[in-house]
Design a protein that fits this description.
elongated
């Protein structure tokens, strides 16, 4: 923080001034014949700190003038110290107020964003993926340590330091205009409560929840979650797949993350009025126009939670408004298909 750097510089300057005052006072008292070095240092310290006054040896006019200057210098430095502490506290409070107000102003303009409840390891990974996809998001985290860790990773992230299980917090995150919500809090009960509140506040919201215990999976679905992820189940399946089908896992990692190869798996929605509406895949000529491979489709009437997928669709597969196409190709090719579908 900038205010800490400024405080450190001012505090260092004050220490230098204090050291200079002690040194000059010690040297000054040392010039008096009755005072040795330790007497001089002791007189200087009790004079500057104003803790009480008893002369080690009687002072004459010159010594009393020196003592007066030291008292004035000590009182001044004490006042500077209290001023430094006060300014630090005020600046910290004002910085927090301005940061909160600026964050809320940005959140108030969001639409079709994602709300991430929890900034732990899972929450930070979700934020990383959303940053890579350039998707607007808001993170809700109550722990100051976890919030600071997220700020170090993404200094410009929109972060609410509040309780994600509170309806008021979800409203502040503009759940009414959000596209989706991810809840990955540390306790299953908290995730369950967030699902209940989010589904009540925004019935059309897509909710993804994390479950630590297997017996919580079904409860989260009942509470309103569209998708539930269990790290234990998912991790076990992936570990087995890496042993049994390592090349498949490697390929999917490349296709989903886009690392090391200009290749991605992406979903494309066909909006109403699209040029593809009512055409078959052969008539749409998606591979010829964009170079993409259509891997699967999901019909519009089944585009909800449990609709069946059509894998490796044939050229006779008809495209309707609301359909979802799963395609594989480069980012530029996907962008061309998205624009063509909305033309």
């Amino acid at each position: 923080m900038n205010q800490f750097g400024l405080f450190k510089r001012r505090f260092t300057a004050m220490l230098v001034a204090l050291a200079a005052l002690i040194a000059s006072g010690t040297v000054g008292f040392w010039q008096i014949p009755e005072y040795d070095f330790w007497d001089s240092l002791y007189m200087t310290i009790i004079t500057i700190t104003a803790v009480g006054y008893e002369e080690v040896h009687d002072l004459r006019t010159g010594g009393r003038i020196l003592a007066g200057f030291l008292i004035a210098g000590g009182v001044t430095l004490l006042g500077v110290w209290f001023a430094l502490l006060t300014s630090l506290l005020v600046e910290m409070d004002l910085t927090h107020v301005f940061l909160t107000r600026r964050t809320m102003n940005k959140i108030d303009t969001l639409k079709d964003h994602v709300i991430v409840c929890g900034a732990g390891r899972t929450g930070r990974q979700v934020a990383t993926e959303l940053e890579a996809a350039e998707r607007p998001y808001v993170v809700i985290e109550q722990s100051p340590a976890a919030a600071d860790a997220l700020r170090e990773l993404f200094p410009n992230a929109l972060l609410l330091e509040a309780d994600a299980t509170s309806d008021e917090t979800l409203v502040e995150a503009r759940i009414g205009t959000a596209y989706g919500l991810v809840t990955c809090l540390s306790a299953d009960t908290d995730n369950l409560f967030v699902c209940l509140s989010a589904r009540d506040l925004q019935p059309g919201l897509t909710i993804v929840a994390r479950a630590y215990k297997e017996q919580t999976l079904q409860k989260l679905y009942v509470a309103g979650a569209d998708h539930v992820v269990s790290p234990n189940l998912t991790g076990g399946r992936r570990m087995a797949a890496m042993l049994l089908r390592p090349q498949v896992v490697s390929f999917l990692d490349v296709a989903t993350k886009g690392e090391g190869l200009d290749l991605r798996l992406e979903q494309v929605h066909v909006p109403p009025g699209s040029p593809f509406e009512g055409q078959t895949l052969a008539e749409a000529r998606i591979p010829q126009k964009t170079g993409l491979i259509v891997i699967a489709t999901r019909p519009a009437e089944s585009a909800g939670r449990d609709g069946p997928w059509v894998y490796n669709p044939g050229p006779e597969q008809q495209v309707q408004a609301g359909d979802v196409l799963i395609v594989m190709g480069s980012a530029d090719q996907i962008d061309r298909l998205t624009k063509a579908a909305r033309a």
